[in-house]
Q: What sequence folds into this?
């Protein structure tokens, strides 16, 4: 039994050519384009927001000096926790989050 190459069973696409339809250029597609009337307007607020974001992006995410001082205070046992300040910050956060919600 002889094994035939698979290429001999696939019909050749080079020999077949689809007919050209009238009104269509065979080399390029005909596209109708309309003028683009899109525009963009940047307000003063958006430019201020962009400057603030750019400024924040240049700052480090972590204040390494503050972290080091807290680590040292914890190691020495001199770090004090102020529960009133923590409660105040939680309250401020809650007020901000309820103002933002619809």
A:
């Amino acid at each position: 039994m002889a094994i035939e190459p698979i290429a001999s069973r696939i019909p050749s696409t080079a020999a077949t050519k689809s007919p050209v339809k009238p009104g269509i250029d065979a080399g390029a597609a005909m596209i109708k384009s309309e003028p683009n009337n899109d525009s963009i307007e940047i307000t003063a607020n958006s430019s201020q927001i962009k400057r603030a974001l750019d400024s924040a992006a240049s700052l480090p995410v972590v204040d390494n000096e503050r972290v080091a001082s807290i680590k040292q205070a914890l190691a020495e046992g001199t770090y004090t926790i102020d529960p009133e300040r923590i409660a105040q910050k939680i309250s401020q956060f809650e007020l901000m989050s309820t103002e933002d919600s619809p």
